[in-house]
Amino acid sequence: MQAYKRDEMISVTDLLKGFKMTLEKLTSHQLEKVAVMKNNKPEAVILSVDEYERLQSKYYWNRLDEETYLTKAYESLTDTDSKTMSIEELDKKLGEIIGRHES
């Protein structure tokens, strides 16, 4: 179960009263997530669009089988002028590509 900080939890009533302020905290990245509480239990989580897209991208890359993952990574590497590179350079380049897709 996910843990929530005190300022990341809000009741449905308080959310309705202060929705604009809560939304501003999410979009300005003051908060990463907000758990909407009902009867002292989390019922829903609100995320910024940036965080949602980051999680979707991570989910996409994590669910690919190895062959598809490597094929897509290779296709991303074809924009380089050099046709040969060391394993260290390849590892660095793949790390950059994966980082772009996760963020």
Description:
The chain has a three-stranded mixed β-sheet with strand order 1-2-3. The mean pLDDT is 82. It has 103 residues and is of the alpha+beta class. It is elongated, with a radius of gyration of 20 Å. It contains five helices and three strands. It has two domains: 6-47, YefM-like fold; 50-102, no CATH class.
Oligomeric status:
single chain
What low-confidence regions span 5 or more consecutive residues with pLDDT below 50?
A: none
Largest sheet: 3 strands, mixed
Radius of gyration: 20 Å
| Largest sheet: spatial strand order | 1-2-3
Summed over residues and divided by their number, the pLDDT gives a mean of: 82
Relative strand content: 15-25%
- The helix content is 55-70%
Counting DSSP E segments of at least 2 residues, the number of strands comes to: 3
Number of helices: 5
User: How far apart, in Å, are the first and last alpha carbons?
Assistant: 23 Å
Number of domains: 2
Please trace the helix and strand order, writing H or E for each element: EHHEEHHH
Class derived from helix and strand content: alpha+beta
Per the principal axes of the C-alpha atoms, what is the gross shape?
elongated
Any descriptors?
103 residues; alpha+beta; YefM-like fold; 2 domains; 3-stranded mixed β-sheet; 5 helices; 3 strands
Structural topology:
Blueprint: E1 9-11, H1 12-17, H2 19-27, E2 33-38, E3 41-47, H3 49-63, H4 66-77, H5 87-102
Parallel strand pairs: 1-2
Antiparallel strand pairs: 2-3
Short synopsis of the structure:
By secondary structure, the chain is α+β, with helices and mostly antiparallel strands.
